[in-house]
Write a structure and sequence with these properties.
Elements: H1 2-8, H2 11-33, H3 39-56, H4 61-68, H5 70-76, H6 83-107
Helix pairs in contact: 1-2, 2-3, 2-6, 3-6, 4-5
């Protein structure tokens, strides 16, 4: 969805919406791997992973890998951008809300 968003929009909507959706994707993968994980733990794990990738961009490693691989560029990015940290939080929060709602609905 993040790549689709970038294909149909531009600017801040594409950039920061993609960041939020990146974290939602990571959260979805966490839930698929560990279906019994609580919404809070899944969101926290996805946020921690997203932040770790962003802080890794303070080193030269992601930029070097991104020069060699499109996949690495999509997954790791290349440069640190502090506002991304906030938008990853937005994605984790949205994922938490959806996961919580789904869990409540399943219990009924």
């Amino acid at each position: 969805m993040g790549l689709g968003l970038r294909a149909v929009t531009a600017g801040s909507v594409a950039k920061y919406g993609g960041d939020a959706l990146y974290t939602v994707l990571i959260m979805t993968l966490v839930v698929l791997v560990a279906p019994r994980v609580t919404p809070l733990r899944a969101a926290a794990s996805a946020l921690a992973f997203s932040w770790a990738v962003e802080f890794l961009q303070l080193s030269a490693v992601p930029a070097e890998l991104s020069e060699r691989s499109v996949v690495a560029r999509l997954v790791l990015g290349s440069t640190f951008n502090a506002p991304d940290l906030f938008w990853y939080g937005v994605g984790a929060g949205a994922g938490w809300l959806v996961h919580t709602a789904v869990r409540r609905r399943q219990r009924r």
